[in-house]
């Protein structure tokens, strides 16, 4: 398969540092939404999303619980669309995260939530979407049109937008993320050779496990999805803690493991997990700023950054890995079989 395959995905991966800079330059709009949320003093947060956006929602769950000390739940849209549940949402913050802003079930959740007292906030890449119109407040992730079916730039800009939003709610000004565009460019440039080596190592892999803890669990889940939808690889994602509670029994010398090993508490907690996985003979690829401190056969080191921002950088070499594996397997990741850009569910 030639490099023409996946050209949209490749271009959109490379756009991300510039998109981060653009989003940071316009963060005053996100700041205003964060201030409105803070004025409401929510007692609880609910997150509604599907697909890659669901992984971004998990990232937001960690941000809100750790940085705002608010309890958070993930919405099951079918409780609204199939079962007609109508819980009291007075005093609840409802964040609907959708790249397209057009999924019917998420629209129904947003409309229903607003009627039942929730403060509704849409986080989308489509400013004129139905979900934006239904929500009281909205955040534009400013990724521009994404032509590849597999989400890359919309996923990472959503992560950054969510970080800026939560930071604004706690009274921050977004300065923690000020250096992210430069770190993202360094990540893409400096990891290129290690990613190419990973493509060579895993081009014939049949099974892969992705794993991480803390904020990086979202990255593990998104990595699994990217590998499955672009390379048709049987990839499963687990929390590092859950991996040791049973699934590790299925790990052996024929299993490739992508492990997120960043700095901070989440990355530190992965060392024991990877020692156990290595004992079973798995081929481990450690990705992150602390990759050199983890048991692994291959490493993709990343520049250090605050732990809560690491998922924005971690996903970049993984997107490149998914692109490279698809190409080496003779596939076009821009046109995965059976998939459309917008999936409509109820």
Automatic annotation (TrEMBL):
One of its GO terms (molecular function) is hydrolase activity. InterPro entries: GlmS/AgaS_SIS (IPR035466), GlmS/FrlB_SIS (IPR035490), SIS_dom (IPR001347), SIS_dom_sf (IPR046348). The keyword DNA-binding does not apply. Its EC number is 3.5.-.-. Residues 33-175, 195-336 form the SIS domain. PROSITE patterns: SIS. CDD domains: SIS_GlmS_GlmD_1, SIS_GlmS_GlmD_2. Keywords: Hydrolase, Repeat. This is SIS domain-containing protein. It comes from Saccharopolyspora cebuensis.
